[in-house]
Amino acid sequence: MIELTYRDALRKALADAMTEDPSVILIGEEVGRYGGAYGVTKDLIREFGPERVIDTPISEPSIVGAAVGAAMTGLRPVAELMYVDFIGMTMDQLGNQAAKIRYMFGGQIGVPMVLRTQGGTGRSAGAQHSQSLEAYVMHTPGLRLAMPATVADAYHLLRQALRRPDPVVFIEHKALYTMKETVDLDAEPLPWGRAAVRREGGDLVIVTYSRQLHYVMDAANRLAEQGVEATVIDLRTLNPLDFDTIRERVNAVGRAMVVSEGVMTAGVAAELAARISEECFDYLEDPVVRVAGEDIPISVSVALETGSVPGPGLIAETALRLTGKRAAA
Amino acid sequence: MTNTSPIERTGERPGASNSRLPEFYRTMRRIRTFEERVGELFVRGQSAGSMLHLSIGEEAAAAGVSAAMRPQDTFTTHHRGHGIFLARGAEPARMMAEIGGKEAGYCHGKGGSMHIADMGLGHLGANAIVGGGIPAVVGAGLSARHHASGAVSIAFFGDGATGQGVLYESMNMAALWGLPVVFVCINNQYGMGTRIDQATANTALHERAAAFGLEAMSVDGIDVEVVADAARTLVEGARAGRPGFLAISCYRFYGHARKDKSPYRDEAEETAGRLRDPVGHARARLIETGLAAQAELDAVDADVAAEMDATIDFTIAATEPPLASMFRDVYAPDEPEPEPVRTRIDRVLARD
Ligand SMILES: Cc1ncc(C[n+]2csc(CCOP(=O)(O)OP(=O)(O)O)c2C)c(N)n1
Ligand SMILES: [Mg+2]
């Protein structure tokens, strides 16, 4: 058992993968000498040298595109996009190239690369540095998508991503880097693509991922004090999506809520709610409720920033109302 | 094509009698002091976040280029744009309030340091996407020509933006169409921890602009008069349909943002870099040429310090934007605002 931060776990996953597999390289802005904008790649350039830890100019489309070409020719690149907000700049390389090469070329070759990036609110970083854009990725067939919420998953999901045959977009949350956990990294991890049931309860199922897991767990503890027990599902990967676990739990409990930091309209929560409504219809006692980000850009003002994404208060309140056991005000 | 080296341009200062140096000095001092107060706002925990990029060391770029601009001219800036905006006439208190994320700020606390703008002053917006504001000046150039407004549009960006393809697309369009546009690259030697020569094999940045057919110059940003002179040539050239590019070499005195202590560069380099001080240079020159006495300059400094101190008080006293304002300005004022998540949840849960 060791105590690690989310950041350290990511760093260790990269270092272990690089030690084990000489074809793994890192490429991105400030990943080398600077050690990564959020410190994830700190000192890896010292350990593995500038041939494998490659600092680039500020050229996102070509960083991702170079990773695609490297992946097609025998390397296993981990490209870093400093903020997920820059994904739009790379969307051709990601969406038209990385995602479609296996398919367009009739299965001749895959693109086994990882695109590491981070997103979310929590630093007053403003409208262009605080978004949750996972829906862009989830909406693109051919891309896998992992979003770790815990320290152990930061490690294991990144190690697993680096063994996958297809491009994986790996989105960290900027508010989680300093989170600490005591973990046993030798314990067998859940397999790639499996959701984790973080809590069991018979009153409702809350499906979530990334940082919102912590808000949901906090809310679930408050709910328990009021006699409402929630099952909490942490998706871990959004593609592959472990809908079997969701279906099984929702069918057993009969009530579901989906929580996501991304904007509500046409977001990940929308997809999940639609699918639960379709597939679990006969078992649902109430409509599926989404708690998600407001359909607005993120402000630099702390008040507006925190007000525009779900927090434990709104999650708990909504769950209470959904279960019809709202405490008398 | 004018590819003028810093050395060649040094002789071209205007005569002392019609010198604008006293005015430039004041502008640069205001920028320097404002940026110092931004640092203070952060230390006092009153800024919205730590992503605050100070333009200390780059004052001559802001003051010199701004001096060549006319009221109808428009511009975009990068994330290190406080100084440029101040030089164009911004009210420092409203800027500081924006940096504090307050309602009284230029963008009502929504934008912050990296997204400050004021259409009234021709500021089409600062940008947190490196290179993100560059192509807008091509459009503004088309617009100026369409409306025969005589306006020039200027993109200010850092050396780091020379890594972005969008710069080259924009330079090509501007040259191809002969637009009233100037690209101003403030080369402070670093993009975060990456030194310019670690980001490009050819650091003579004006050469690539010249290759597209732009009027291109590189100048030393220690001397505001040299910058102003080059900018005047290029901006007036652009007004006449010959778009330009100006690289201004300077040194980023401090870390990239407030939390960066620049561990990637050594102290000797920083000490030498901070000697390339455009404010100190202008001050020495004013005294040496007899344009101003030490005491007069001290009085300017004191005056500016009082003005900028007040911006902190203003910001601390200012109120947070009201929560409901988050839905405002996603769309035009007469359009319906996005429906709050709570309202949507209420509707779902309203059924019995
Ligand atoms: C598209 C994009 N990529 C990366 C970043 C992260 N980033 C912010 S500022 C910066 C360095 C910019 O350097 P430069 O253009 O020289 O401007 P300076 O900070 O030196 O003023 C980087 C890499 C960003 N904001 N946008
Ligand atoms: Mg720079």
UniProtKB/TrEMBL annotation, chain A:
Keywords: Oxidoreductase, Pyruvate, Thiamine pyrophosphate. Gene3D superfamilies: 3.40.50.920, 3.40.50.970. GO terms for molecular function: pyruvate dehydrogenase (acetyl-transferring) activity. Its EC number is 1.2.4.1. Its cofactor is thiamine diphosphate. It is an enzyme of class 1 (oxidoreductase). Residues 4-179 form the Transketolase-like pyrimidine-binding domain. NCBIfam families: PRK09212.1. PANTHER family: PYRUVATE DEHYDROGENASE E1 COMPONENT BETA SUBUNIT (PTHR43257), PYRUVATE DEHYDROGENASE E1 COMPONENT SUBUNIT BETA (PTHR43257:SF2). This is Pyruvate dehydrogenase E1 component beta subunit. It comes from Amaricoccus macauensis.
TrEMBL record, chain B:
The keyword Oxidoreductase applies. It is an enzyme of class 1 (oxidoreductase). The keyword Ribonucleoprotein does not apply. Its cofactor is thiamine diphosphate. It comes from the Bacteria. Keywords: Oxidoreductase, Pyruvate, Thiamine pyrophosphate. The pyruvate dehydrogenase complex catalyzes the overall conversion of pyruvate to acetyl-CoA and CO(2). It contains multiple copies of three enzymatic components: pyruvate dehydrogenase (E1), dihydrolipoamide acetyltransferase (E2) and lipoamide dehydrogenase (E3). This is Pyruvate dehydrogenase E1 component alpha subunit. It comes from Amaricoccus macauensis.
